[in-house]
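call fold(seq) -> C-alpha cells
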Amino acid sequence: MDSIYLHKKAFIESQIRLLSRPLEPPPNWRENAKLDEDGNELSETAVAHAIYCLNMLLRKQYRIIFSSQAIRHVSEQIDRLYHSPLEISLVEPVQCDFQSLENIEKLPAVWPSDDEKGSEKYTNLRARLISLAAALDHLRQKHSFYESIESSLKQLGQQTDLSSRLSLELERTKKLTAKIRQKLKKTILIDSKSNNNIQSTTRGI
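ret:
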C-alpha cells in the first residue's frame, strides 16, 4: 500500500480519536452555572448525567460520520491528488504566447506552493511579465497609428518633413518593440526555469 495513503489515513484517524474523547465539565463549572427554573443550583448528578448523554450522542454521530469507509475514501482521494500532475494554467512557453497581456493575466496570481521564496519569485516574475506585455501593447498601438498616418501621407504624395519625422518615429518604435520582446523572452525563460524548480520542490514535499 502506498505510504502517502497510509500516512494520511493514520493522520485522519488520530484527529478523529482526539475529537472522540469524552467531554468533561471544567473544574470551575459551578462559578458560571445558572440556577434552574426553581432557583436551585444544578446538582453534580444532573450535570454528570447530561454530560454522559451528550457523549453517547456524539459517539454515535462520530461512528456515522467518521466511518472506516469514509476515512478510506478520503485517504484515497488525497493519495490520488498527491500523485496526479498539477492542473495549472501555467503551461510550457511553446504552448502559450507570453507576449500577450491577456494570456499572462490568466496565470494564477499566487503560486500554490509552501515554498515562500519560490512563490515570491513567481509573483515578481508575473508582475514583470504583465508590465512588459502592457508596454509592448502600447508600442504596438503607437506603431500602428504612425503606420496609418505614413500610409495616408504616401497616398497623398506629400513627402514632407512630417513624413520624415514619422519614418524616424516608426524606426524608433520598432527598435523599442524589439527590445521589449527580448526582455519578455528573457523573463519567460526565467519564469519557465522557476516553474520547473517550484514543481520539483512541490513534488519533494
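Residues 161-204 form the longest helix (44 residues).
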